[in-house]
Q: What sequence folds into this?
């Protein structure tokens, strides 16, 4: 399910996961090859993932806090 996928992604390191690391590598390669439009799209994708992960981290922390105090 989506919820379990999100938790697994967080456990793997979220925005520091292999997927984001790969995207960052591809972005750097695109920039070195003067493919600036591609590099910009990859940068935007990385930022979107990192923004989403901030929301997941907050929601997960809130959930743990609620469960811990019951």
A:
């Amino acid at each position: 399910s989506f919820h379990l996928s999100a938790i697994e992604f967080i456990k793997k390191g979220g925005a520091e996961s292999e997927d984001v690391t790969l995207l960052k590598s591809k972005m750097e390669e695109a920039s070195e090859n003067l493919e600036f439009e591609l590099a910009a799209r990859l940068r935007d994708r990385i930022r979107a993932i990192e923004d989403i992960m901030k929301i997941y981290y907050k929601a997960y922390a809130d959930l743990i806090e609620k469960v811990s105090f019951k």
Observations:
- The chain has a mean pLDDT of 80.
